[in-house]
From TrEMBL:
This is Amidase. SUPFAM superfamilies: Amidase signature (AS) enzymes. Coiled coil: none annotated. It holds the Pfam family Amidase. InterPro entries: Amidase, Amidase_CS, Amidase_dom, AS_sf. PROSITE patterns: AMIDASES. Residues 26-448 form the Amidase domain.
């Protein structure tokens, strides 16, 4: 058999289910790879080695008795360190919560537990999930496993880097302005944020309460489809979670794109884009066309207002959540984060209310522009080639601010709109760093977006490539 760490989420589960690999062997393979290589990548904050091995042994015993725990049984996973596990420290990437032990477990973790996933611990992240790069002054910067001086994307930096480095099969991240899709794109893995309210956020540290999303990063669209089915659905502990029924996302992965129409907005997403990124994106459209899809260039003037309003909402809500700590412990934040939060306090309340009240009308307008006559929207995940950590370090040099913020320019609009969006690998740039293709669908159209991503991956091998860490 191949190296167990090369198995995707669904492959790892299948190997366990068929008796080709024990859960203990899968976990030990992950632990060995972390021990060998995470000293360079710095993706892990807390490694629950013994607990993971105990859970694996219990699953092996159950399997021997003919009991299979669920659709993720045997699969090693780790999660961004903002998902609460009762009694375990959850730092949220900060010193302020360096010894915080929650009394509850996050609903998404409970659902993964019930599906048989094996939780091995928590992952590095941007401090309080508030930067798009992978910098963290408290736990050290996370490094891109494809080329260590380069950034991983954030804020789910450890999730993206760890999945790419084959430390574990999949991880949960969170996405408020692109924090799942950015590390997915920059590290060469697949990640999805669902429709706003699709997945419960109960027991997850908030950043922006009207734009936060929970979702997975994994190797393939099929992996993400399976995990999304497990974690999605209404939760009485989260009054904002949607009552919409959760379909079988995997069943939608037919590979057939005949009759499907893909809209490519001409505004916003290509402004100042690097040539290699545009070429990679155009090549990805040809793959979709070969599968039967039609591509149409559309005009979306609504994007200009959306790009402005998204920053207003996220900054005001984040500043509100952190108000007490900012009064009492402002010096415990990284400079760039305290500066960002102070900026939130300077935004007039009327601007915030305007930005909130415009969300519905702008969603309807964008859907008329891009999705009334088309099934999905396709864009590059990033306009730019992957930058280095040094080029995006705004604490070291505030002049890096424009490049720092440009990283998330193409992901932020879909948080404001609340649309389900997938990022998947679509090639490598001229420096050997991954590039991402972004697919968005109508509200609660996660299955459609994943279907397109899966069809693309059937005809390409970018998602199968792994970085060399030796």
């Amino acid at each position: 058999m191949t190296d167990l760490t090369d198995l995707s989420t669904t492959e790892a589960h299948d190997a366990f289910r068929k008796g080709e690999a024990t859960a203990e062997a899968l976990v030990r393979a992950s632990l060995a790879r972390i021990d060998a290589h995470d000293g360079k990548v710095n993706s892990v904050i807390r490694l629950d080695r013994e607990a993971a091995l105990e859970a694996a042994a219990a699953q092996d015993k159950a399997r021997a008795a003919g009991i299979l725990a669920g659709p993720l049984a045997g699969v090693p996973m780790m999660h961004k360190d903002m998902y609460y596990r009762a009694g375990k420290v959850s730092t949220c990437g900060s010193s302020i919560r360096g010894d915080f032990r929650p009394t509850r477990t996050a609903t998404p973790l409970l659902r993964l537990d019930a599906a048989g996933a094996i939780d091995m611990g928590t992952l590095n992240m941007a401090e309080f999930a508030q930067n798009p790069t992978g910098h963290n002054r408290h736990f050290g910067d996370c490094h891109n496993p494809w080329n260590l001086p380069y950034c991983t994307g954030g804020s789910s930096s450890g999730s993206g880097a760890g999945v790419a480095a084959r430390f574990f099969a999949a991880a949960l991240g969170s996405d408020t302005g692109g924090s799942i899709r950015l590390p997915a794109s920059i590290c060469g893995v697949t990640g999805i944020k669902g429709t706003q309210t699709r997945v419960s956020r109960a027991g997850v540290m908030p950043l922006s309460f009207s734009m936060d999303n929970v979702g997975p990063l994994a190797r393939t669209a099929r992996d993400c489809a399976r995990i999304m089915r497990v974690i999605s659905g209404h939760d009485p502990a989260d009054a904002t979670s949607a009552p919409e029924p959760v379909p079988d996302y995997e069943a939608a992965l037919t590979g057939d794109l005949r009759g499907l129409s893909v809209a490519v907005p001409q505004e916003w997403f290509f402004e100042g884009a690097d040539e290699v990124v545009v070429k990679g994106f155009e090549a990805s459209l040809e793959v979709l066309k070969a599968r039967g899809a039609k591509v149409a260039r559309v005009s979306c003037p609504s994007l200009r207002a959306i790009g402005t309003y998204v920053a207003v909402v996220s900054r005001v809500e984040a500043a509100t959540i952190h108000a007490q700590w900012m009064r009492e412990k402002a010096g415990d934040y990284a400079k760039h984060l305290s500066g960002r939060l102070y900026g939130g306090y300077a935004i007039p309340g009327t601007w915030y209310v305007e930005a909130l009240s415009a969300r519905g009308p702008l969603l309807r307008q964008f859907c008329r522009e891009a999705l009334a006559d088309h099934h999905v929207v396709a864009t590059p995940s990033l306009r730019m080639r992957v930058p280095t950590l040094a080029e995006t370090d705004i604490d070291a040099d505030p002049a890096n601010w424009a490049r720092h913020m440009a990283i998330s320019a193409n992901t932020r609009p879909f948080n404001y709109l609340g649309l389900p969006t997938v990022s998947l690998p679509c090639g490598f740039d001229d420096r050997g760093l991954p590039m991402g293709l972004q697919i968005s669908a109508r509200p609660f159209g996660e299955g459609r977006a994943l279907m397109v991503a899966d069809a693309y991956q059937r005809d390409t091998g970018w998602h199968t490539r792994a970085p060399v860490l030796a």
